[in-house]
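Predict structure. Chain length: 486.
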Amino acid sequence: MKLKHLLKGTQIQLSPGLSDREIRGIAYDSRKVMPGFVFVAIKGFSSDGHDFVERALAAGASVAITEHPVSDTTSSSVVVNGSGNNRSLLALISANFYHNPWNELTTVGITGTNGKTSTAHILRWIMENCGIQTGIMGTVGHVAGGKSIPASVTTPDSLEVAAYMREMATQGDKACVMEVSSHALALDRVSSVRFDVTLFTNISQDHLDFHPTMQDYLDTKKKLFSLNKNTSVTIVGTYAPHWPDVPGAITFGERQEDTWRIAQIEVRLSGSSFTLLTPKDEFRVTIKAPGRFNVYNAAGAIAAAVQLGIPARDAVQAAGSFPGVPGRMERVNCGQEFLVAVDYAHTPDALERVLKQGSVIAENRVIVVFGCGGDRDSTKRPIMGRIAAEIADTVFVTSDNPRTEDPHSIIQEILTGISSEFSPIVEENRAEAIKMAVQTASAGDVLIIAGKGHEDYQILGTEKIHFDDREQARNALTGRGYRCAL
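Prediction complete.
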């Protein structure tokens, strides 16, 4: 592709000598530059791409695009983006390079604090079971053309988003379901993508290390609605506070006025069921996943599937066979007489939801093991401590992903939210905390290991080590004499 075609839609003016240069690829990491690439310099949170322009040119970049003049280079191959926003530029030229693949796919964008992953996976399951080959991008991994791709973030950068969606279209996928994080919306990772359906699950406190206020967090989430295709549908969950009032949106929740109304919810250790009243009919829905929050996730996914043309009865039937999402109220079953579940709940709202559901289905005590991540929103730590102590009968406070913070200090911040009348068990070593909790559990208990879910690592300092809550739970159950089948 010629550079002038790659930069179509931008305000960048090129000299005649640059306009017709052939471009073989795009990179924003100088280590990934190959001959014939365009290097886009982006100022990150820990490093600045402008410091690596010379390295990119030395690696063979045909052109480097910067947000401002770079003092240590006089190369005629450096072009300054007058808008000063190379993140937005990267999204636009990635769309041009990969020929807007979302126009060849039925696309769904899902945002919200909690429930994105489960809703996305249930929807993909419904679509695949109804004969629509579907790719996915999200927290637990991406799938393009049937090929699994590890995920380091919920929503990749715009270059990867365009590349993965092009791979989907090329390999026969007819649709793409994507989790869209607030970071992705704020950092222009999806600013060029267009969606057939946009879905908002809920909002609660999270990422206040990145967003200055909750209002800014909500406003950023709402940017998703501006990325609709001309005939798009917006779906909004009303089952949690602070949902946005979007004119013309389809709603789902428990209100009488909701377009898709949820009623007669029943939750059990083995799963959940509810009545879903649609604009035309009503269905009794039974899903294998326990927990009231999974009812909402399933309802949103079914509503989205129907808007995409799938008959409601078929969507309901397919949802009933959904096996669950790794790390989302995922059962660790070794034949024990109590429930052990691993869940990704790492926000106050998510922890409250999962513990309340645990209390509904528990025949005895609710036990929780949790911590809080380091280098992230610290204001939620005492809140999560308070929630755990108010709902659970036994609380183990431990380490999560401390990153570069002192794990002991994080735990102390959690403890400030717990009443002096409640006595939590503090064990900084997460593996030991899980072992202790399993040893404590007895018949009829619900033990929830919260915070890390599907993650198979722990971040200590800057090092990522292997650590899987599910493995640790199985080891502890085996230690008690139970036989665990993988």
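Summary: The longest strand covers residues 228-237.
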